[in-house]
Design a protein that fits this description.
Strand content: 5-15%
Structural class: alpha+beta
Distance between the termini: 81 Å
Number of strands: 5
Number of helices: 6
Strand order of the largest sheet: 1-2-3-5-4
CATH architecture of the largest domain: 2-Layer Sandwich
CATH topology of the largest domain: Heat Shock Protein 90
Length: 242
């Protein structure tokens, strides 16, 4: 007994070719999508880097202005103060006005370019900022977190964010007490709590003049997340996580 087999021809000879063409088109489309996606990511990174460079340039310009004010304007005021000592009559009042202007210029210089950040580091600078901005306060830093290994430009952005938040509290919250907590829980974390007016911004419609948009842009620059929330006990809590 013998058996024989035969393979029938495909009912549609063009099916295999069509499938191959469709598969090739799908592969080409996938490759193009991957290339386009990578190009978009590269453009986003390029824009982010440009924004960071712009922010760094702004800080350099702040330092330059602060240096000019300190080296030139304060020097001129000191000369004027020495000359005022030779005047008769209301010399004491005139000298006091010069000293007041000098103190204000020093404060402006420190706001423009916080020397404390370069001198003592981020955590100590944040504590110094809190002390000098808010009268009733508490600063809590996790043990061993005195030194943070962030680049100086990242530290500056964190400092500026804290500065904006504390200034907003001082101007608008009418708070009796403010607490700042620094920890390394899941990375760097800064929490600022206050017992003033509840505040939770609508990020779709950011309020003008409160520095919220500055906080948002600075956080994006350093790839950090931030939030505001109102607790059940009436506190407003700002959190920055990096």
């Amino acid at each position: 007994m013998t058996f024989s087999f035969s393979v029938a021809k495909a009912p549609f000879p063009w099916t295999s070719t069509a499938l191959a063409v469709l598969l090739l088109i799908a592969v080409i489309a996938l490759v193009m999508a991957i290339i386009e996606s990578r190009q978009i990511v590269a453009k986003i990174k390029k824009i982010a880097a440009a924004r960071f460079d712009l922010a760094n340039e702004a800080e350099r310009e702040r330092r330059r202005i602060a240096r000019d004010l300190h080296d030139q304007t304060l020097a001129d005021l000191r000369k004027l103060m020495l000359k005022s000592d030779k005047l008769e009559g209301e010399n004491a009042e005139f000298r006091q006005e010069i000293e007041s202007v000098s103190d204000e210029i020093r404060r402006i210089c420190e706001d423009l370019s916080p020397s404390v950040l370069e001198n003592v580091g981020l955590t100590a600078a944040l504590e110094f900022l809190l002390i000098n901005t808010i009268e009733n306060h508490n600063f809590n830093c996790a043990e061993g977190l005195e030194e943070l290994n962030f680049p100086s430009n990242v530290q500056m952005q964190i400092y500026r964010i804290a500065q904006e938040v504390l200034n907003n509290i001082k101007r608008h919250a009418e708070a009796n007490f403010v607490e700042m907590k620094i920890s390394d829980e899941n990375g760097f974390q800064m929490i600022i709590e206050n017992d003033g007016k509840p505040f939770a911004p609508d990020f779709e419609n950011l309020p003008k003049g409160r520095g919220i948009s500055n906080i948002k842009s600075r956080a994006e620059l350093i790839e950090a997340e931030f939030s505001w929330k109102n607790s059940e006990d009436g506190k407003t809590i700002f959190t920055l996580q990096k």
